[in-house]
Specification:
Blueprint lengths: L1 H38 L6 E6 L2 E2 L4 E7 L9 E4 L2 E2 L1 E5 L3 E5 L8 E5 L2 E4 L5 E2 L4 E4 L7 E3 L4 E4 L2 E4 L4 E4 L4 E4 L14 E4 L4 E5 L6 E5 L13 E5 L31 E9 L16 E4 L6 E8 L6 E4 L5 E7 L6 E4 L5 E8 L13 E3 L21 E8 L19 E5 L6 E3 L2 E3 L3 E7 L5 H7 L5 E2 L2 E3 L3 E7 L3 H8 L7 E3 L75
Parallel strand pairs: 2-10, 11-13, 12-15, 13-16, 14-17, 15-18, 16-19, 17-20, 18-21, 19-21, 20-22, 21-23, 22-24, 23-25, 24-26, 25-27, 26-28, 27-29, 28-30, 29-31, 29-32, 30-33, 31-34, 32-35, 33-36, 35-37
Antiparallel strand pairs: 1-3, 3-7, 4-5, 4-8, 6-7, 8-9
C-alpha cells in the first residue's frame, strides 16, 4: 500500500511539474514574441532621397524610401501641387516623370498616408539642340529637348519632321543666322516634305522666340512656312515672299498632303526683311497647301506681319486664334479656295501696321498686276470662312496711327482685286470700317463677284464701326451697302451705342485673360444661316454667330501672356 501511495505521490508531483514547465514555456514564448515585435516594427512611409534633385520636365526622377506600394497606381506623387506620372514602383523606390510646372516639396501618398521630402526639388533647364541646316531625312524632335532654329531651316522633299507633343522650338533672331544673310530662324516645310506636329490640349507644341521672358517682341524670328503642291493662280516662276528660296511652281494636286499641325502655338514670328511691302514672313504662311493636310487648334500670337496668310492652295482648317497681331489676321491670296471654321482674333487697339491693319484681307492678284487680266482657268481666290470673331475694341474705333504700332486700323473686311471670298455667321467688332468693298479704277470685278453670288457674305454682324460699309475706288458706298444689306443675307449692323445689346462676355477684350463666351441670353447664340456655299459638308451647322457658342475651345492649350512664359524648363 505504501508503495502505491508513493507511486501516486510521484505521479502527482510529476504532473504538477509538467504543468509548471508548460506554463513557463508559454510565458517564455510570449515574452520572446514581444521582444521580436519590438525588434522589427512594421515599415513606416518615408522618403529618404530624391535623385536627381534638379531635372527638366519629362525627365525621370527616382524617389527612395520605405513602405511604398509595389503597384504604381496605388501610389500618388506630386511635385508641390502638380501630380506626376509613376512609371515603376517597389516597396523602396518610385520612378516618376517630372511634370510641367513641377514644384517642391515632393510628396508621396499611399494607403491613406502622405509624407513630404525634406530635400527641395528644383526644375532644371532642358538641353538645347541647335538646328542650323536643312533637314534632308525624316527626323524626330522630342519634348526632352529645346530646339533652336537659326536661319532658314528647310525640311526637304521626301523627309518628314515629327515633333513630339510638349516640344518647345525657338526661333533665333536674324543676328544669329550662321549663313551671314541676316535671316531670322524660320522652319520651312518644302513641297514634297511633311510636318507631323501633333500636340494635345494639355501638352501643346510651342514655336516661340529665343529671347528671354520679358524681352520678346513682334517679329523676333521668321515663323512656320508650309509649301505644298496644290494649285495657285500664279506663274510657276513666281518667287516666294520674305526671301524664302525657290519659286511657287506649277502643281495640280488639290489633295496634296503637307502633314499635320494640331494644338500648336506660334509666337513672336512674322519677321520683316525690309520696309518694302510683301517682304515679310507671317506667323503661319501657307503656299499651295493641299486638302490632304490637317491643320487645327493653332494660336498665332504677336506676329510681326499677318497672323495667317494663304497663298493659293486648298487646305481646310479649324479652330484658329490670331492674338495681338501686327498687320492682318486672315489674309488670302493667289487663288486660295479652302474652307475655315471657328477662328477668333483679339487685337491690341494700340498696335497696327503702316499698311493699315484689317481683320480679313483678300486679293485675287498681286498689286501691280493687270486688274482686268483673266484667270485663264486658274483658281480664283474664293475661300469660305464661317464662325469667325474679330475683336479690336469696345471703345471708340480710331483710324489714326496706332500709339505703339506703325500705322492705323482700317477694316474688318477689306475685299479687293477680284476676290470671291465668302464669309458666314461671323462677328466683327471695333474697326473704323466694317466692310470695304474695293475694285481698281476701270474695273468692277470685285462687285461683279458679289452681285453674281460668287462672293457670299451672310449672317455677319458688324458692331461698333465708325463706317460699317463703304466702297473704294471703282465701287461706290451705295453699291457696297446695297450688297451687304440684302435682306436675304441676314447681315446686321449694330451701332456703337447698342454694342451692349450683344451681351458679350465682360472679359471679351481682356488681353491677358480673355473669355469669348457670350452671355447666356446673347442674341449671338442664334440666327446662323447656312445656305449657298455655307451648306458645304465641311461645316458644322452651328446655330450661333461668331466663333463661340457655349463651349470655349481655347481652354487648356493657349497662352495669353507668352511674353512672360518660362520656356527653358
Amino acid at each position: 500500500m505504501r508503495v502505491n501511495q508513493l507511486r501516486r505521490g510521484w505521479h502527482g508531483n510529476f504532473s504538477a511539474l509538467t504543468s509548471m514547465l508548460v506554463l513557463a514555456l508559454g510565458v517564455f514564448l510570449v515574452v520572446s514574441s514581444c521582444k521580436n515585435d519590438d525588434a522589427t516594427p512594421a515599415p513606416v512611409l518615408s522618403i529618404t532621397s530624391i535623385s536627381p534633385t534638379s531635372a527638366p520636365v519629362g525627365s525621370t526622377v527616382v524617389i527612395t524610401g520605405t513602405a511604398f506600394n509595389a503597384t504604381p497606381t496605388s501610389n500618388t506623387v506630386t511635385f508641390g501641387t502638380v501630380p506626376a506620372t509613376i512609371t515603376g514602383a517597389t516597396t523602396t523606390s518610385l520612378s516618376v516623370i517630372v511634370p510641367a510646372n513641377a514644384g517642391t516639396p515632393v510628396n508621396v501618398s499611399t494607403g491613406g498616408v502622405t509624407v513630404s521630402s525634406t530635400t527641395a526639388f528644383a526644375l532644371g533647364n532642358k538641353p538645347v539642340i541647335t538646328v542650323a541646316s536643312n533637314i534632308t531625312a525624316s527626323t524626330n524632335w522630342t519634348a526632352g529637348n529645346i530646339y533652336l532654329i537659326q536661319g532658314f531651316v528647310n525640311v526637304t522633299s521626301g523627309a518628314t519632321l515629327t515633333i513630339e507633343k510638349g516640344t518647345i522650338i525657338k526661333g533665333a533672331p536674324k543676328e544669329q543666322d550662321p549663313s551671314g544673310q541676316a535671316k531670322g530662324g524660320t522652319l520651312i516645310i518644302q513641297a514634297g516634305a511633311k510636318i507631323s506636329a501633333i500636340g494635345t490640349a494639355d501638352s501643346p507644341i510651342i514655336f516661340t522666340s529665343s529671347k528671354a521672358a520679358g524681352s520678346r517682341n513682334y517679329g523676333d524670328w521668321g515663323g512656320v512656312v508650309l509649301i505644298g503642291k496644290a494649285p495657285t493662280n500664279q506663274p510657276g516662276a513666281t518667287a516666294f515672299e520674305g526671301g524664302i528660296p525657290g519659286t511657287i511652281g506649277t502643281y495640280t494636286d488639290v489633295n496634296d498632303n503637307s502633314g499635320t499641325m494640331q494644338y500648336c502655338r506660334i509666337e513672336f514670328g512674322g519677321i520683316s526683311l525690309t520696309n518694302v511691302s510683301n517682304s515679310e514672313i507671317n506667323g503661319l504662311t501657307l503656299y499651295g497647301v493641299g486638302a490632304g493636310t490637317t491643320i487645327d487648334h493653332i494660336q498665332v500670337s504677336y506676329s510681326g506681319d499677318d497672323s495667317y496668310e494663304w497663298f493659293g492652295g486648298t487646305v481646310n482648317m479649324k479652330n484658329l486664334i490670331a492674338f495681338r497681331g501686327w498687320d492682318d489676321d486672315w489674309d488670302t491670296d493667289w487663288g486660295y479656295v479652302g474652307k475655315v471654321q471657328y477662328g477668333v482674333s483679339l487685337r491690341d487697339p494700340d498696335v497696327a501696321d503702316q499698311s493699315a491693319s484689317n481683320g480679313f484681307e483678300s486679293d485675287n492678284f498681286n498689286p501691280g498686276a493687270p486688274a482686268t487680266a483673266a484667270n485663264n482657268g486658274l483658281p480664283l481666290t474664293a475661300p469660305v470662312f464661317a464662325n469667325m470673331s474679330n475683336f479690336v475694341t469696345a471703345g471708340t474705333p480710331s483710324n489714326a496711327a496706332s500709339a505703339k504700332g506703325s500705322g492705323p486700323y482700317q477694316s474688318g473686311m477689306h475685299l479687293r482685286r477680284n476676290t470671291s471670298i465668302s464669309i458666314f455667321n461671323s462677328l466683327l467688332v471695333g474697326y473704323p470700317e466694317g466692310l470695304r468693298l474695293d475694285a481698281q479704277t476701270g474695273t468692277t470685278n470685285t462687285l461683279d463677284n458679289a452681285t453674281a453670288g460668287n462672293m457670299q457674305l451672310r449672317g455677319i454682324v458688324l458692331a461698333n464701326m465708325t463706317t460699317p460699309v463703304r466702297g473704294a475706288q471703282a465701287i461706290t458706298n451705295d453699291q457696297a451697302t446695297a450688297f451687304f444689306t440684302t435682306a436675304a443675307f441676314k447681315n446686321q449692323i449694330i451701332a456703337s451705342t447698342s454694342l451692349a445689346s450683344l451681351l458679350l462676355n465682360s472679359a471679351n477684350f481682356t488681353l491677358t485673360a480673355p473669355n469669348f463666351l457670350p452671355q447666356t441670353s446673347s442674341p449671338l447664340l442664334t440666327g446662323a444661316i447656312w445656305d449657298g456655299k455655307g451648306a458645304d459638308s465641311f461645316f458644322t451647322k452651328e446655330t450661333f454667330i461668331g466663333a463661340f457658342g457655349t463651349t470655349d475651345w481655347t481652354k487648356g492649350w493657349t497662352n495669353w501672356d507668352p511674353q512672360n512664359a518660362n520656356y527653358d524648363k
